[in-house]
Input
Amino acid sequence: MTATSDAPVHEIRAHAPAAGGLYSLSQTASPTSHVPAHFDHLGRTGYWGNLYSDIADPAVRWSFVRRQALLERLMDPIVGPKTRVVEIGPGTGNLVGYFASRGCEYRAFDAARAMADATNAAISRHPGLALDSRCDVGDIHALPLADGYADVVVAAGVLEYLEDPARAASELARITRRPGRMTSGGSDQPGGIALITLPNARSLNRQLMQRLGFLTRVWNRIRSRHRATTPAPDVRRIAYTPGRFAHSVAGENWQLDGAFYYDVEVLPYPLTRLLKRLAFSAKRAAEGSSVVPKSLFANGMVLSLSRTA
Output
């Protein structure tokens, strides 16, 4: 796949949403150090776990369910018994059941204690994983794993929060298996794989939201007056194009193999907020369409990268 690296990068600020709410957008930034507190709040309140349940707003749930389905489809050919998987930012452990069904050796790390606890609870419910599978509180920039430990690394909803993704990519490359010769048969062994999800900066809807950000700020002020709980700290997210992300991690021993898109939004903002049912119906129809150019209408993407020498 060929991608240019001169496309814009959009900055997003994610506010802790009320039940059933959507993340709002802003062009202002706040420190990366707020990220663990943000996700601890979402974990403690149960909001994050409910995103995948039937009680969530269907339009919000759709995005997360589609992301998970896409990740599982991409992992099907490369994950099997004894595959060493490292997941960064597992949330409440929604992929644990998938890895257990495949008989993987699973390690996970999350910056938020509430998320790590929820993932360990999920691990305890799925005996198909290796006995030493667990989730620890950890830092993506300094993981307590040996060089070349992982066959597959998954980081969903993580790197968009980082000020220096190249540093994180370097650490992920360190723990991922290098390509080389297999001990039997003499055939080449490919390097390990990383699957990374990011907001899609090419999304026309996202670009429109950036330009009409004042509407979101007004909407958030109105909603904040009716919130019963104190919101978590705001945290910045960064949207990328595939080429821009590849450029940002150039020299970190990764090769971009492909970009895959999910959560297609065809109705323009602010109609997505004002006509939620119609927008959701259009979203579901467009997701399965081969006509809609998903790279221009999808809110999110999964990048597949392979470890180089």
Residues 1-31 have pLDDT under 50 and may be disordered. The chain has one domain: 10-307.
